[in-house]
Amino acid sequence: MNAEIISVGDELLIGQVINTNQAYIAEKLNAVGIFVDRMTTVGDNEPEILRAFESAFSSHDAVVVTGGLGPTHDDITRSAVCKFFQTNLVHDPEALRNVKELFERRKLAVTKLNEDQALVPRGCTVMQNSLGTAPGHFFEKDKKFFIVMPGVPSEMKGMMEGFVLPYFEKNPTGVVIRHRTLKTTGIAESHLAEQIGDVKSILDDDSGTTLAFLPSPMGVKLRITVRGKKLSAVEERIHNVEAKLRARAQKYLYAADDEELEHVVGRILTERKLTIAVAESCTGGLIADRLTDVPGSSNYFERAMITYSNDSKMAELSVPASFLEKFGAVSREVAEAMAFGIRTKSNTDIGLSTTGIAGPTGGSDEKPVGLVWIGYSDRHETIALRFNFLNDRRRVKERTAQAALELVRRKLIKIT
Amino acid sequence: MNAEIISVGDELLIGQVINTNQAYIAEKLNAVGIFVDRMTTVGDNEPEILRAFESAFSSHDAVVVTGGLGPTHDDITRSAVCKFFQTNLVHDPEALRNVKELFERRKLAVTKLNEDQALVPRGCTVMQNSLGTAPGHFFEKDKKFFIVMPGVPSEMKGMMEGFVLPYFEKNPTGVVIRHRTLKTTGIAESHLAEQIGDVKSILDDDSGTTLAFLPSPMGVKLRITVRGKKLSAVEERIHNVEAKLRARAQKYLYAADDEELEHVVGRILTERKLTIAVAESCTGGLIADRLTDVPGSSNYFERAMITYSNDSKMAELSVPASFLEKFGAVSREVAEAMAFGIRTKSNTDIGLSTTGIAGPTGGSDEKPVGLVWIGYSDRHETIALRFNFLNDRRRVKERTAQAALELVRRKLIKIT
To answer: How far from chain centre, in Å, is Cα A122?
Structure first.
């Protein structure tokens, strides 16, 4: 089964918003055996929308449309859908209930514009929107599908997960496509490629199997893709390729698929009943932010200090004034003192610290922008590692946070 | 002049890579008066590529193609371009020099595959690639343009900035397009629409001017777009529409274009020589992370405490144990005590705090997931505001951080 994704919205055409919906939808449709072979973006313009609908629906088994379902004058997808299917709008009582409930919970009055959000094209199955006011439309016609969802990513994802994907799981398409992503960090793409060696010997020359290297600032991802007819055979192939990759690069593989480094670290801390506290300077709270993104993190994350000023480093973490004077705030000695200070003060098993020059100013020849020290302290040792990140301010923060969490992971599982 | 962007690559169709090229190209073309009204993505498949070329070139003044110019078997854009223009490949000596130089610098041997990268379609102007081996192709035919660039973002950007944009600056299209985005927060889209009222009266029924409402979890953006022939007239229209919007919704407008709330808050704090410290519970460091994303934030951001545990709230912020017992950690009293505690401890002008139930667990009937108290303290007052965010964990953190920074902004400029 092939599909085209159509995104509607002027904000996409002027480059104001990067389209993340298309990649998400394509990946999820792949998982239920639907292959996207075309993606189109058009503006809030009825003739253009209708032209895209006609072209897509005439050449594809499924069309997935997002965007333009909101309450204001520039949201015209719903009326275009009505024209396309030569139907009209009807009130959906459940959608209206949903709108009213949402506004009640927010303690806001429901306006006429809001109530109109409960109008849907006659003849579709209504996909309710648990995160917003615009319902989605699911048309099935002559074994073909026409699916319309809001452009707000969270609302679209809610409908994909709550309705579209379950539908195709119950009504399988006969083809199975599976992806598996293994995540590495702390190794360059070319070095990882050398470590892994001959890709053909890993894929067994199977044309339905591919391996892709995907570099990013957080590390290089390895993506295995397998297409086939039987789920069990496809999953077995994924499993075999993964095993070969693990045999060659296990040390660098910290997680798979959607799992992030903070989940892995959190899982190990939970299993071992260990606690952590963080003292951040250059990362400015990003490590704490990532650690607390994990549900249940309050079980192991005790506290963090964002000690930006020298005063706060001394007062909160007992960093000796002499260290700051002699070695400077960005130094091995201060990183170690911060990690030790936060651990002992918070009475946790692990203390983690960062101090560096995020830029764009504040660098010198001796200590350039991007110089970072990451400190780690547990009952047995207190150490610090030096990094040089050649990036802009945000990127330095991101790469430092990633390297700090990876340091904790490696210490926990005794990789050095 | 209108344009279509065509992206070529299987990696885009399976959702492996998010397409950031389209947004970049669209924004840059807008700036030289070229309006993108359609974006298309197709796979590494010749019939699909040719179909997209034909459809785009027949209905647009300019077509911009990226991707599929690499050296391996799945890169077929170049041969499709030759078929489309019924031409053949010729060697470009400068491109060959570039390939050889690149490999010399990397101390690698040049293979036949690499040398073939210097083959270009006869009849195009060659755009050299300073960052990679694949040259770009620039066709001008009957006042129409067909531009082909690599898919690697840095290489594509190099060609846009080095060749495409300078070309259209030297050969102006006669049209000027300008955008202006005004950002609001703390008001629902429908309420903002009511506040603003009749859109037509704001736009003066000018067909070259549009106003879009763009909702996001951080707030609703208002985007003004003006197309015209003279830059001065276009800018004046933008200015007039902006003034009318400001007259109707000034209170909610916190920034324009690329400026974020943390920049606005940082600018006001800097101007007034004020300092801030933050005590975060449910936001887990996100407010500190945002504040420290701003270069120079060390001038006003003194420290933050991420006090996740009750112990840390008492020890670090002097929150009375009796408050935690009697009112619970998520309460007005604790939010106020946290804001007051961090301000007095850090000796800053402002103290800001958050405490809430980020979820997915930990909620109750009385205190559901998404309940948040935000505390604010300065020399004159200590207050807390209650919010209910109906979202997932990350979204609750994001919306809380945004509402907290907005509270500071409003207090600083005396909006209540």
So the answer is: 36
Span B275-303, average pLDDT: 97
Nearest to A262 by CA among B403, B394, B359: B394
CB contacts under 8 A, A 64-93 vs B, are: 70-74
Q: Strands of A62-66's sheet, edge to edge?
A: A125-127, A136-141, A144-149, A62-66, A2-8, A35-42, B35-42, B2-8, B62-66, B144-149, B136-141, B125-127
**Which residues of chain B are within 8 Å of residue A288 when distances are taken between CB atoms?**
280, 284-285, 288, 306
Q: Do B14 and A24 touch (CB under 8 A)?
A: no
Residue of A15, A36, A298 lying closest to B27 (CB–CB): A15
**Predicted complex ipTM:** 0.80
Residue B72 has pLDDT above 80, yes or no: no
Interchain contact, A302 vs B287, CB within 8 Å: no
Main-chain dihedrals φ then ψ at residue B151, nearest 5 degrees: -85, -20
Structure tokens at A296: 């249940």
**Chain B residues near residue A18 by CB distance under 8 angstroms:** 18-20, 23
CA dist B350 and B269 (Å) reads: 10
B329-380 confidence digits (pLDDT tens): 999 999 999 999 999 999 999 999 999 999 888 889 899 999 999 999 999 9
Instruction: Render pLDDT for A285-300 as a digit per residue (tens, 0 to 9).
Output: 999 999 999 999 999 9
Structural contact between residues B275 and B349, judged by C-beta atoms closer than 8 angstroms = yes
**Averaged over B146-165, what is the pLDDT?**
94
Domains of chain B in sequence order:
2-170 (3.40.980.10), 176-256 (3.30.70.2860), 261-412 (3.90.950.20)
Residues 6+ apart with CB under 8 A from B125: B137, B138, B139, B140
Question: Nearest chain A Cα to B22, which residue?
Answer: A15
* H or E element in which residue A59 lies: helix A46-59
Q: Chain A partners of B217 at a C-beta cutoff of 8 Å?
A: 154
Q: Which residues have C-beta within 8 Å of that of residue A387, sequence separation ≥ 6? A: A356, A371, A372, A373, A374, A399, A400, A403
Q: Looking at CA atoms only, how far is residue B57 from chain A in angstroms?
A: 16
For chain A, how many helices (H) and strands (E)? 17, 17
Which chain A residues are within 8 Å of B303, Cβ to Cβ?
305-309, 312, 316
Burial of A348 (0-12, 13-18, 19+ CB in 10 A): buried
Closest-CA distance of chain A to residue B90, Å: 31
CA distance linking residue B1 with residue A398, whole number of Å: 40
**B368 interfaces chain A, CB cutoff of 8 Å:** no
Nearest to A350 by CA among A376, A384, A319, A317: A376
Task: Decide: helix, strand or coil at residue A12.
Answer: helix
Q: Which residues of A touch B312 (CB under 8 A)?
A: 302-303, 346
pLDDT surpasses 90 at A230: no
* Band (B106; pLDDT cuts 50, 70, 90): low
Binary contact (B15, A22; C-beta < 8 A): yes
pLDDT at A149 over 80: yes
Does B195 touch chain A if contact means CB atoms closer than 8 Å? no
Q: From the CA atom positions of chain A, what is the Rg in Å?
A: 26
d(CA B278, CA A121): 49
